[in-house]
Amino acid sequence: MSEISSEYSKKLKKAVKTLFYQRHRMPGVKGWELRRSLGKDYLTILELLNVQLEDLGLTVKIVFEGSENPDNPSAEAFESARYYVTITEPMSVTELKMSGWRVDNVAALTVAVAYLISKQGKAPRKDVEKLLKQKFPQWKLDYNLARFIRQGYLVDDDEGVLYMGWRSRAEIDKKSLLDLILTKEV
Amino acid sequence: MSETKQSKIKINRDRLLRILSMCLAVRKRGTDPFDVEVKKTLDTMRRLLPEWELPVDFNLDIHTLGQIANIVELQGKWLRLRSTSLYVDPILIELKLRLLDEDMLTRIFQRSWSPIVTFERMTPRRLKEAIDYWNQLPTIDERTAVDLIDMQEIGSITKEDLLESNIMYEEEFQGSMLNMWEALKASTNNEGRVDYWSFIKADTFDETVKRAYLASFMVTYGYASIEQDHLEEETYLIPFEEQKEDSEFQGKSVTIPIDYEQWRKIRRK
User: Fold this and answer.
1) How close A47 comes to chain B (CA, Å)?
2) Both A98 and A177 in a single domain?
3) Where a domain ends, among A89, A120, A143?
4) Which residue, A30, A168, B90, B231, has most beta carbons within 10 Å?
5) ipTM score
6) Which of A62, A167, A169, A178 to mutate to test the interface with B (most CBs of B within 10 A)?
7) Smallest CA–CA separation between B81 and chain A, in Å?
């Protein structure tokens, strides 16, 4: 029994290293990387890890391939998904500002992402620009969109279409964002 | 094949291409898939089918049919999404977004944002690579000759480069540009224009380059336009009373090189 416990303990430590330490340009790891590193029962290890992380206000977030999370993901879907550690409790506005974000940039990102969510994850760049242009000058808008694309919050293609990026899908709770926008008293 | 028949086939082929491009546009841009009237489209295709004779037309027909099948799939997804709690009318969201101020938007974002947590680490292997790099790196003196050549190469720098390097800040950039615009409006002659070189000229070379840089953005963002008199070899800046949208003015690209010698010349004028 203690051998099994020790084995799991080792795998938990390994899972922490694999998930926390950024090894590629993008943070997070693929399911197949976790399987290779932790073994076939990697999802069980992640569940155990989640219990420990919960006390620290952290969680392992799974982002499946495609625009929506599947209802009953298959083993293949879990392997091709990307795994991140994210915080669970919302940050305060002060913490948000201290993390290097300016209020106007956050506002621009919120508008762009919320608009894309309402359009099922993609919309012509021109439409997003038109909405942002109401409150931001063109040069600032160009600067912000380029920055959001570089950070992975947005993705653009050659045909002028903007999509939700991998970071938006990992970090932003879409439903909560839309609910808050709709219920906010103006 | 008679000319009449040929022309009829061409018209029918165009109709099929229009259907195909509409299906592709809906799929690519994510617009409402119900914009494609599937039943009507299939009826049209059924009517056109007996007209096809060439393999290329049959191919086009099959390809279009495949795209219509994709549209039907999208319509199914669209209906499923509308029946979930996540669906909200995009117009409603757009309206709310227009009404919310920066502070409210930030509070909303902060409550639905869970940033990724990562650590950076140094591995023994990376440390060894760093030591090897240091050991083989030539000294500054050894590299000076090469660096001097690099420094004299002509390059370009964008506004983003300046902002990222903290040489200039966003507010400073916008403020400087708007101040310059006001100064430009105040210094126009009775023809409503100012000589470019006399306007950007400053006491130092650095300041002159900065003014030239800001002037280029004034033109790009619709605060002014630039005019060149090729006969007289003169360049003029013409300020607009209000910022113009992209569609309101004819954007043009003019290259005006400036170097130290050029600055000394305009200083003497």
Assistant:
1) 18
2) yes
3) A89
4) A168
5) 0.84
6) A178
7) 9
